[in-house]
């Protein structure tokens, strides 16, 4: 992989952003790698020597690393921290490093994962399923390594975009910069099946030509849903936005039989995808090109 420096950051900034302490092993798959879309995983592997990533794109991850490092340095009471666990499954070594394993009773533990994230991931629960998958894998790994871990985990969310003004105005908005979300984790059998299935999907995609690879789903692409906007002629902002075309047509036609002004029309707003922006293999992905052409993704390589 090649690093670029489009913003012309000085060398000491570049050195900081490029620093990576992860110990890569060809036969090892981490919990987070298991959760990757098979298409993204395969295209990155197949094009590794041609991949480019701009160091500016690493800034957000360094925020997360800094927060994790500061928590680890404290040495939290009654907790084990940042321990990497391993277990063989099929022909691979599955690995994961938990953030915190807190003792909740005599020799029983609870997983706590530290996330630096947007407020909106808490408000809309957009990453809850990913949290459940990741912590379930950590729990399974911990149990295989002789820890007795309860089936409820916690996500310690530290918001990067929290606003005190919005907190005062909206009681449903997080009232502090930190929130704790509790999640119910999978059982051992369900987790092991998921791990086995994911290994199969990733390994299969790696052997395929791009045309044969599974396409990234809307869920994997972190896609928003389509919406239908009622627009007034000449206006830049929508008069009203609906989740279905039927709702938009009903309002446009009027429930009392009287149609709205002919100056109004319905415009389909295609749901946008987010994940491509963070995928290092996007330049080699024809699905990404299609998403740009259809207006569902911006071209992040211009």
Condensed summary:
The protein has 302 residues and is of the alpha/beta class.
Q: Could you outline the blueprint of secondary structure elements for this entry?
A:
Blueprint: E1 2-4, H1 11-18, E2 28-30, H2 31-34, H3 38-46, E3 52-54, H4 59-74, E4 79-89, E5 92-105, E6 108-117, H5 119-123, H6 128-144, E7 148-149, E8 152-159, H7 164-169, E9 178-184, H8 188-206, E10 227-232, E11 240-242, H9 245-253, E12 264-269, H10 286-293
Parallel strand pairs: 1-3, 2-5, 6-7, 6-8
Antiparallel strand pairs: 4-5, 5-6, 8-9, 10-11, 10-12
Helix pairs in contact: 3-8, 6-8
What does this 3D model show about the protein?
The chain is an alpha/beta fold and 302 residues long. The protein has two domains: 2-212, Lambda Exonuclease, Chain A (Alpha-Beta Complex); 227-293, no CATH class. 33% of the residues lie in helices and 25% in strands. Helix 3 packs across helix 8 (188-206) and helix 6 (128-144) crosses helix 8 (188-206). It is globular. The two termini are 19 Å apart.
Given as residue ranges, the uncertain stretches (5+ residues, pLDDT < 50) are: none
Number of helices: 10
Give the DSSP E fraction (strand runs of 2 or more residues). 25-35%
Secondary-structure element pattern, one letter each = EHEHHEHEEEHHEEHEHEEHEH
